[in-house]
Amino acid sequence: MPYIKGTGKDDKCxxxxxxxxKRGAKVGCTRGDVKQYLKALYASNPKEAKNxxxxxxxxxxxxxxxxxxxxxxxxxxxVAKSHYDxxxxxxxxxxxxxxxKLHDEMRRLYNDISKLxx
Length: 118
Known about the structure:
Blueprint: E1 3-5, E2 13-17, E3 23-29, H1 34-44, H2 46-85, H3 92-116
Antiparallel strand pairs: 1-2, 2-3
Helix pairs in contact: 2-3
């Protein structure tokens, strides 16, 4: 069972974390450092510690993927801006098609980012 630190008058207490991420039953309290108490709880239950670590790693990987997609999209926006800035009447249609392709790719990236955020 994952654990969470209490707040307010319970800031020296540790509670079980419910499936919806809220505070559940009180596990116990300490006069010392609550982080040390949490470490001891996880150390006594390696399976839970491993599960929590897996969740952290997954969140970090999602964040990394999100950043990669955002960087790719920003790069495309720069290219599209460059096309607009350099448009000349003789190549207008060709450049407009390139911009439309970039726009479609950016829409795909935006959808991918939206899926990551859910």
